[in-house]
Specification:
The chain is an all-alpha fold and 79 residues long. The protein contains five helices and no strands. The chain has helices spanning 6-26, 30-37, 41-49, 56-66, 70-75. The longest helix is centred in the first third of the chain and has 21 residues, at 6-26.
């Protein structure tokens, strides 16, 4: 699978970094998250690595699960 380039790469990488950060802080594995929100572990792993763009549904599901704003996941900003 080809990695995203340019602006897409930056966006996907940022989302993946934020997802990885919150999983580590909450001590939750991709497997545990996959069971809780109904997305595959492989999907979550690809998102963490920036290989895949997150769907709106995924962003909302993970934001609701962690009670963190979608803006934080997408931009890592709380303003």
């Amino acid at each position: 699978m080809a990695r995203p380039t340019g602006t897409a790469k930056t966006f996907y990488s940022e989302f993946g970094k934020n997802l990885t950060k919150v999983l580590k802080e909450k001590n939750i594995t991709a497997y545990q998250l996959s069971k809780e929100i109904g997305y595959s572990q492989g999907c979550i792993s690809r998102l963490k690595k920036g290989y895949r763009d997150p769907s709106i549904g995924f962003v909302v599901a993970v934001s609701n699960y962690f009670n963190i704003s979608t803006d934080w996941f997408l931009k890592n900003k709380t303003e």
